[in-house]
Amino acid sequence: MALPDWTVYLLCVASVCGGVFICRVINCARKTPWKKTRIAELMARTEKPLFWIAYSLYTRTQLGYMFHKRQIRKARERYPSGHSRTQPTTINGIKIIPVPILSDNYSYVVIDTASNLAVVVDPADPQPVQACLEEEGVTLQAVLCTHKHWDHSGGNRALKRRYSSCRVYGSAMDNIPGLTHPLSDKDTIGFGTQLQFRAFFTPGHTVGHMIYLLDGRAIGGPSSLFSGDLVFLSGCGRMFEGNALTMLSSLDTVGSLNDNTLLWPGHEYAEANLLFAAEVEPNNVVREQKLQWVLQQRGQRFCTCPSTLAEEKQYNPFLRSHAQDLHRALGLQQKQDEDWTSYRARVFEELRRRKDIYKGR
Hints:
42% of the residues lie in helices and 19% in strands. The protein contains 13 helices and 15 strands. It has helices at residues 5-31, 38-43, 49-60, 62-78, 126-136, 150-153, 156-162, 244-255, 270-280, 285-299, 309-315, 324-330, 340-356; strands at 89-91, 94-101, 105-112, 117-121, 139-144, 167-171, 181-183, 188-191, 195-201, 210-214, 224-228, 231-232, 235-236, 262-265, 307-308.
């Protein structure tokens, strides 16, 4: 069915405006640190129509990929050896290597040392990921992609071309580049002799966001959660394509996992997240101790992951929507006719709103 003339006109106007906006973003990124620009302030306010025009262009068109490629070039120039200094973690024959990408992203190379087979989580930039694989002398079997945003999926196709047997896993709902093996909630996938993953459907940040749990039982150690943009150290992702109830349900999936699970997030946001947590729970002693450790780590550009879910449940406000101290700090009370889940969603929504406009110290 043909679109009405006015619809076509609005789409054309939206495309032009969005294109101009993307150009302004690129220009600002070239001239000024991202966090200090007016563009950053606009991008923090998802209720603005211009934001949604730009977001649609970023996620659905080649303009977004072009912007991503430019950001990669700039990051390679600024951080020739990566934005952070990382160390591999080895657990009974499984080696996890954080690979710093862009200005604050992490990809992860997960290696079964017995079979020399590897899986990569969220390879935004294929170059450092491929360098890591070659240095380790391993064969890439699969890409596990948490969601469609280019800073998590930008290297999928390049790695698939480089490694012909590589499979790309993710949600079919999320338009993931190069996807070959769509997954559903709680699907399990195995690689090598010891790499056993379970995928969880966790919408909210995007409509098809997934997280991946590496089962520790197969290796006699803790499990590892690769959380993409759902959960960070003391933080969570923004609700681009979901509401508070949806995001809360996804976060509850994380909260239901074992306390000794290691958390491997998609970004190095620890310092800013803990400073925000101090604003809403200033008397949280565990949070303050973690902040001091993070400040030491970041002072030397060391990576701050992994944390454990036991830790996160003590200081991550987005996993603490049940906590009375947090309710008091936010000035919220449960309404007489409000069920507990709806109340927690309202607490979460207020937290997320405050974080979106938080300026930092």
